[in-house]
Design goal:
2 copies of one chain form a homodimer. With 305 residues, chain A is an alpha/beta fold. Chain A has a single domain (3-298), classed as UDP-N-acetylmuramoyl-L-alanine:D-glutamate ligase (3-Layer(aba) Sandwich). Helices cover 34% and strands 25% of the residues of chain A. Chain A is built from 10 helices and 13 strands. Chain A has a 9-stranded mixed sheet with strand order 5-4-1-8-9-10-11-12-13, sandwiched between helices. In chain A, strands 3-2-6-7 form a 4-stranded mixed sheet. In chain A, a hairpin with a 2-residue loop joins strand 12 (209-213) and strand 13 (216-220). In chain A, helix 3 (127-134) packs parallel to helix 5. The longest helix of chain A has 18 residues, at 254-271. At the A-B interface, helix 7, strand 13, helix 9 and helix 10 of A face helix 7, strand 13, helix 9 and helix 10 of B.
């Protein structure tokens, strides 16, 4: 089933605590999402880059089954850039430099042949853009949005409008607390639910994710990774496995969402094994399914005696 | 099957971020452990208190099926005291006052009728005492020990001796990093395994626990609690459900340990709902089994389509 994503494309520079540095590599929320979701279904991308966008990034991205008819290379604009440095715990990071550039401009037009998209992921970007895109898909079956601390601070009104229009919302634990004022993650998730979406997924990085919906709860640890090189894109990769799986089985039930979150966990576990989309470029769907089986084994609590 | 525990008994004063304060309540690692494990099997306690130990604590503790023949009320000594204050995140805490008192003295003698104990839990205390106790049970089938940052700092040599003699070791994530110098929790667990035990359980508080053994891994989130009153004793309660279940089914296989960890998660989830052992005093085994079923549902990732 058709899956569309909009979000950022970035030229990233990433420094990790072991002294490694990836300079000017392909990044951004929609890139990580589209790459990860492409293992499950074909993906449509709506995003803009500037005229400085390196030609070899196109080649690198061709590895993934993503339609880039909605990718605009805008003359006179510059690509979004981000430079970050991770702390020793690999969970916290400092942004050393950020240049919004083309992300501060209008969204590119949505190609006509994208209009029948049914699964829509609004990766983190300005909520005005998320709202604008959302309305362009009359046949939408599942809309899930992500956000970040910046928009919670600066655009709470638009964000609440958005929450009234999406089916699902994903955000990390600190953002959930920031948005709702609740320090307990379950209470925070419930407060987000009260703003409109049918389900909320709170991402906790290396500590997994929590699903909360009207009738219950799901809790998942992260995949127990013993070699994290770069956590950039882990959250978008989580969403990519989740949405990619749901679109591939065309099922929006809570049961499907539970399994989808496990797929998301596995895709994220690959992303963090190398910089950029380098690790995703090496694997096949069969690797993902294999690791999902392994992960299911990790979660096994047996049947008792 | 017979389960024995040694560890601290304390008079605790606990302050929580919502302004509540529990003053001079029953606490200590062996108390939380014995109370929790008593839902699964009968428990034998070896521990010392001072002559200041309040009489009403005995009455409070009678609620639990624990043999206290090994509990010594030592004339001329004072009971261990701890005063702590939790941070807003409920995971970190400051110790405002600690008085080691009787915990700094010799262990009480082990009653003769305890000698046939097969399941042994060495709750956190001085590793010299843990080593001393361990040798007194020739029929031991499973020995698991806990520790804390203090002993990792001051008694690394004794701790390594202990690690060479136990079957399992439980410790929290910061302690695992401290003991091994590994910042990745999986690598840290592997480094602990290399010191001797057959399995290691790394406790991550509200983020669950990780099991690591020679042939694999288990990962469990915590029970998604929406009302944490006081996290004191959560780690000991986790161990209590784990060891209590294992002793009750008399099974030390990895499969049994996986299920035991889920029971531990559930017992801990009750402990934190009130101060001291107050919540444990209100529940029955059936409540634990009910919540285990609920928790298994939380972990469900479905079978796919």
């Amino acid at each position: 089933m058709s899956l569309i994503v909009t979000g950022s494309i970035g030229i990233d520079t990433v420094e990790t605590p072991d002294g490694q540095k990836a300079e000017s590599v392909l990044g951004g929320s929609s890139i990580y999402f589209a790459a990860g979701a492409s293992f499950f279904t074909s993906v449509r991308l709506v995003a803009a880059v500037g005229e400085d966008f390196p030609a070899h990034f196109h080649k690198q991205f061709q590895r993934f089954d993503v339609c880039t008819d909605g990718l605009e290379e805008r003359a006179g604009s510059k690509t979004f850039r981000w430079h970050g440095r991770y702390h020793a715990n690999m969970n916290d990071r400092d942004t050393l430099d950020v240049q919004v550039n083309v992300l501060g401009e209008a969204l590119p037009p949505v190609p006509d042949h994208y209009r029948d998209s049914k699964y829509i992921f609004l990766a983190n970007t300005h909520p005005a853009g998320q709202l604008e895109l959302l309305d362009q898909f009359p046949d939408r079956k599942l809309v899930v949005a992500d956000t970040m601390d910046l928009w919670i601070d600066t655009e709470p009104g638009l964000l609440k409008q958005l929450l009234g229009k999406v089916d699902g919302f994903v955000l990390n634990d600190s953002e959930a607390k920031q948005l709702t004022g609740e320090s307990n993650v379950i209470k925070a998730a419930d407060a987000v639910l009260a703003m409109g979406p049918r389900f909320v997924v709170v991402k906790k990085g290396e500590h997994g994710a929590i699903l909360r919906h009207q009738d219950g709860t799901g809790v998942l640890p992260a995949y127990p990774a013993d070699a994290v090189i770069d956590p950039t894109g882990a959250g978008d990769s989580f969403a990519s496995g989740m949405m990619g799986y749901l679109a591939s089985v065309d099922d929006v039930s809570i049961n499907a969402i539970r399994r989808a979150m496990a797929y998301g966990t596995v895709v994220a576990s690959y992303t963090i094994e190398k910089f950029s989309t380098d690790r995703l470029a090496e694997i096949e769907r069969s690797h993902i399914d294999q690791r999902l089986d392994e992960f299911a084994g990790h979660l096994d609590i047996g049947a008792g005696i």
